[in-house]
Amino acid sequence: MIDVRNLCKTYRVPLKDPGLAGSLRSLWNRRTRDVHAVADVSFSIQQGERVGFLGPNGAGKTTTLKMLSGLLHPTAGQVSVLGHRPQDRSPDLLRRITLVMGQKQQLLWDLPPRETFELNRAMYDLDRAQFRRTLDELVDLLRIGELIDKPARNLSLGERMKCELCAALLHRPQVLFLDEPTIGLDVEMQAEVRRFVADVNERLGATVILTSHYMQDIAALTPRLLVIDRGRLRYDGPRDALASRIAPERRVTVRGEVPALRELGFREEHGRMVATVPTSRVNALLSEVLAAVPAADLGVEEIPLDEVMARYFRGDEGEPGQAAS
Amino acid sequence: MSAGARAGGWLARHLRATPTLLRVGFASMVAYRAEMVVWILTASLPLVMLALWNAAAADGPVSGFGQAEFARYFTATLVVRQLTGAWVVWELNHQVRTGALSPQLLRPVHPLAQNLAETAAAVPFRLVVLAPILALLLAWRPDIAWLPSPTQALLGLLSVVLAFLLSWLVQAIFGMLAFWLEQSLGLFSLWFAAYAVLGGYFLPVALLPGPVREAAAWLPFQATLATPVEVLLGLRDDPVHAVLVQLLWVVLALGTCAGMWRRGLVRYGAVGA
Amino acid sequence: MPEAPLPAMRRGPARWISVLAALGRVALMNAAAYRASFVVDVLVGAVASVGVVLPLLFVYEHAGSVAGWTLHQALLVTAFFLVLQGLVGLLVEPNLGAVVEGVRSGSLDYLVLKPVDAQLVASLQRVAPAKAWDVLAGLVVGAWALAHLPPPTWQGALLALGLLLAGLAAIYGVWVLVICTSFWFVRVDNLRFLLTAALDAGRWPVGVYRGWVRLLLTVVVPVALVTSFPAMALLGTARPGTVLHALVVAGGLLWASRLTWRGALRHYTSASS
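Output (structure tokens, whole complex):
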């Protein structure tokens, strides 16, 4: 459904010497440097999948997303989305995809969101009755009933993002590209947006492709991960598999401060004792703890995803660059 | 500390800061050079007016103005208008509306003083952009060239400086109206329309119909443009008197400006920007 | 949310009319959101119109005919100029300003991803109704001028309308060309103010200008197509060559603007990060 082969995007950036003399010199002697934002990336995505793009700032996540949606022309390689070349921007494709960018907006600033919705209805040529049904459904799901008749400039950031999502989904797209959709939102609103995206994925069977800085977005939403670093695809596969490869450990926790456990390798952390051990040793450790402190309140946790990723980008996994797809 | 001493300290501090302000003003000028060139070139109206009057004088002088005189007059108008150009009305209007004025108020230097320094620092740059235009005009009509007498030059220079101050003060006054009014920029366009007709921008004041010309003599418009042009070209019989009238307008505008600033700030603080 | 594939998109006029209606609605509502300035806008518009006509009256006080045009013939040109200024202010300037803003803020991304012609939508998302007063002023001046001229034939009137439309298309084309520069150089977007300044030259009959300036006004920034040419049609002095010239220039500029817009969009989408 989405098929990407050897995708590359290279920017040519002018180099400028500082100062007035520098800018004068660059008038006739422009020196440039090539920046490989995306280099030889290949993957494919099936209908209905939820995929997360993960990587540090400037890794090429957004650039890839923009090439998938047709905003950017690739320098080399092929992209196919629902059988179309996205950069041709054929109306047929545009009516089946949508893009939501957390840092840019399509809502008309001085008018109520309802007017943006109406405009989109005309632009996407939607049947009135069906449009109304979809709108009611989305308004209900997003709980924006009271918001859509207030001027957009009077809405809070989170309220605006919910209306942006509504505007982007009125034409019932089959593919959702989400670029940092939760950026700047408070924790509660982030959770609400995530719940909504998962809902849309289930109800519409829509494919969701997401980039985010917030590891919780990825952890909650996308079972499949594409890790992009310095323009290259470093991992493509299940989120859990990556976690167990990078961090094949569990955190064993005991509630309360129990100094006796220090000898077993536990440390104090926010009023509880924590030990990180290889998965294979968890059972043995549990018995040791129970032997030492029979009434211990025990727990076993996975390593949080952001720590996994931090290790991954530090190169702790031993053999970087191996994509397990 | 007496009020006089305080005012003296204020003045001394600003005088000490002047070279720095000018240098910073020039740097920001250089940073915005592309915009600046465009802004300078947009003031082409004197040339449009010249085309009309040039055609009108094709069959002989109009009230003593032949084609050469018109060319000289509108060229001088173009130059003086550039040298006295300001943008404080837009800047102040923007700062008051968006609240960008607030951080400026916390600095020890008067926000308007900084703008005045930037405006002055732009003058040499304006001359550089004007040079090729003047060269083209000279190539078209070599008889534009004229040499003012030393007195004309000296009085003319003084007159240009006064016109610069007056234009800037008038813009500042209209900009400060934003403390009270939504539409201060609209009112400034009204001023500009009157200035264009009565101040010598669209046509030499001498060509205005009698009653209009007499009324215009009592208004401030000429002091911002026509007076320096006429003094430089030697078209005035009473150049010293004309410059003194300019000075009077500058003093009046300065007083208005100071009073409005004080009251405007009270208002600004009360509205809570 | 049951699975319901979209029916195929309609093509042809019905769809365009529904898109245009939706755009017009939004544009008017946007304008209504800023209604505070109405009175001052009207006043400024009226005074500015007077400012356009007044120099002409002063010139003709001293000369019976300028470049072969009598006062009322020249006023006819001015009338078309006012109409042009009104339409540019009403439709062209606010929209192309919005495009520049969209490039800067990135909201153009969303426009590009809609299944509609981006140039059409980008050209019709805003209106500034207050500028309609310029159009009205143009009609008043035109009626006044025509009352003092022999009545035009209906062929002449029809031809004038056609030339006006061709001229407006040409001006729109130039405007799009200028706006496209902001896709490459975001900071020179104020080139469009330079264009406004160039249009100012269209207020006089084109015969006032000579040589390359005239060429500029009839081909490069073809404001004469909108002002002088329709006036000539009404006066019965338009020659077949005039009509051909207008059609070629308008067609050429529209075509060039379409091509440049496409190229600019491609550049925009391949350069933004």
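Chain A touches chain B through one residue (CB under 8 Å).
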